[in-house]
Amino acid sequence: FTPQGPLPLARIRLLAGLLALFTLITYGLDLHRLLGPDGMLPIGTMHELFLSSWSYLDGISSAQLPAVHVVGLVITGLFVLGVQTRWTSIGTLVVLLSYFRRAPVLTGQAEAILSILLFYLCIGRSGDRWSLHQLWTNRLRGTNRLRGADRLRASRSDHDRTDPLTLEPEA
User: Fold this and answer.
1) What is the DSSP string of 50-110?
2) Running DSSP on this structure, what letter comes out for residue 130?
3) Which of 67, 63, 47 is nearest to 55 (CA)?
4) 162, β-bridge pairs
5) Which of 80, 86, 109, 122 minimizes the number of CB atoms within 10 Å of its CB?
6) Cα–Cα separations (whole angstroms), residue 20 to 46, 65, 76, 124, 167
């Protein structure tokens, strides 16, 4: 095992976040029938069938459900954009697990894998690359990263000033 930079986690964050956003959007197309208190699987029946099941959607009325759904979409959207990923990753995981636990008959293997990926992203530093957080941090620090041809020129000029045998800077 060798430690890696933040780029692989950023890629996983983008893909898993987009899948989570897609999942929430598809639930939202028929929100009241799928997740409402009197929907396909009423809360009472749900607790009889799955004793250990818990979801924050259990205490939500039909009138509150659309607003709570929009909050879940916003949290997941912020996670995809890389805003405060330490917190939005946890929020996205809680939102999705609540949806999956509220209607387990609608889930399959893909949802289980997505949950595992989101849990992993709660631990890792997925917002260090390809994120608004990185952009804001660089602006606050005044960091001006070299791009493309400038980076190549800089690496060549550094290479030209090193001794090829010892790889140390020439005097």
Assistant:
1) -TT---GGGG--TTTHHHHHHHHHHHHHHHHHTSSHHHHHHHHHHHHHHHHHH-GGG--HH
2) S
3) 47
4) 169
5) 109
6) 23, 18, 7, 18, 47
Model confidence at 105, pLDDT cuts 50, 70, 90, reads confident
What lies within 8 Å, CB to CB, of 92 at 6+ separation is 17, 20, 75, 76, 79, 118
What's the rounded mean pLDDT across residues 52-71? 91
Tokens 């979801």 sit on residue: 55
Is 0.90 topped by the overall pTM? no
Does residue 152 have a pLDDT over 60? no
Secondary structure letter of residue 30 according to DSSP: T
Task: Give me the mean pLDDT over the 99-117 stretch.
Answer: 91
**Distance between CA 128 and CA 74 in Å, rounded?**
20
